[in-house]
Design goal:
This protein is mainly alpha-helical. It contains 12 helices and 3 strands; from the N terminus they run αααβαααααααααββ. The chain has one domain. About 30% of the residues are buried.
């Protein structure tokens, strides 16, 4: 994911200095949207197992605080309308990210320590989660109390370090640093400006009654993936239409000459930069995650 993010930045940086639009081919080759789609594919599997198959689901990855938080949070947003409200989303981030132990300091590179970059700990994991949430919101504009601006401003304050919510790696570190005494919560900022983050299209009645979760138009959302995944243009500081437009057909990868030992993992021109959803595993930035049905 670090490489994907760097490629996106490379693709859009020149458009800040010239009237040319972002490089669409470079955007596609970055693999960013493929990663978002893969994450949502995993979310759909979890949601279907719980809502339609009435199964329990165990989500686990190597460390438990990257992909686990992503998929667990996205699944809850799809399953429970409460997490599609402003208060519910705040509770979800506090529960499945802050209290669960997502290593914000490592992943965001806070405090200016070079070693986080040298050791390649920095990764846009929470950014990915917000992007995937935007995809669901865009596909279901009447089902969310919060708007796109809310997600975008939350991403801004993830890196602004103006509030103590996302500082350090876990609750113990925040307790030892007396973050609660020495700083304010980012949620104070959002709650004081609640009307700015309220979605004008929100219709609570669209979620239906409590027991309509398996009926089309009921409480449960099933995100669309594939071609339905779009660039979150506002997040990248682009105008609407600059990054989302006509599809670009990339040249097919050239086949290796017979006898050169090419194989399928060469990563040549046209190779997919992101792993897909295969065999119940969701590819991540550097770790995989399994979803087991129980």
């Amino acid at each position: 994911m670090r490489d994907c993010l760097n490629k996106v930045i490379e693709a859009i940086k020149d458009s800040d200095l010239s009237p040319l639009p972002p490089n669409r081919e470079m955007l596609i080759r970055s693999g960013w949207t493929k990663h978002i789609g893969t994450m949502l594919d995993g979310t759909v599997v979890i949601v279907r197992q719980i809502a339609l198959e009435h199964s329990h689901v165990l989500i686990h990855c190597s460390d438990g605080w990257d992909r686990t938080s992503q998929l667990s949070s996205l699944a809850q947003i799809c399953l429970d309308p409460y997490f599609r409200t402003i208060d519910g989303f705040m509770a979800l981030v506090e529960k499945d990210w802050v209290s669960f132990g997502h290593r914000f300091r490592d992943r965001c590179g806070f405090l200016g320590s070079d070693k986080w970059f040298i050791e390649k700990k920095v990764s846009p994991v929470f950014h990915q989660f917000l992007d995937a949430t935007y995809q669901i919101l865009y596909q279901n504009p009447t089902r969310f109390e919060y708007n796109e601006r809310f997600l975008r401003r939350l991403l801004y304050h993830l890196y602004s370090c103006q509030y103590g919510t996302f500082l350090h790696n876990n609750d113990k570190e925040r307790h030892d640093a007396r973050i609660q005494e020495r700083s304010r919560s980012v949620w104070d900022y959002f709650l004081a400006r609640r009307e700015m983050w309220t979605n004008e299209k929100y219709d609570p009645a669209a979620d239906g009654a409590d027991r309509e979760r398996e009926i089309d138009g009921g409480r449960v959302l099933f995100p669309r993936t594939g071609a339905a995944i779009r660039w979150w243009e506002e997040c990248w500081g682009r105008e609407v239409g600059e990054m989302n437009g006509s599809a670009i057909s990339l040249p097919a990868p050239s086949l290796p000459e017979e006898g050169d030992g090419g194989g399928t993992g060469g990563g040549g021109r046209g190779a997919s930069p992101a792993p897909g959803w295969q065999g119940g595993s969701v590819g991540g930035s550097d770790k995989g995650i399994d979803v087991e049905m129980m």
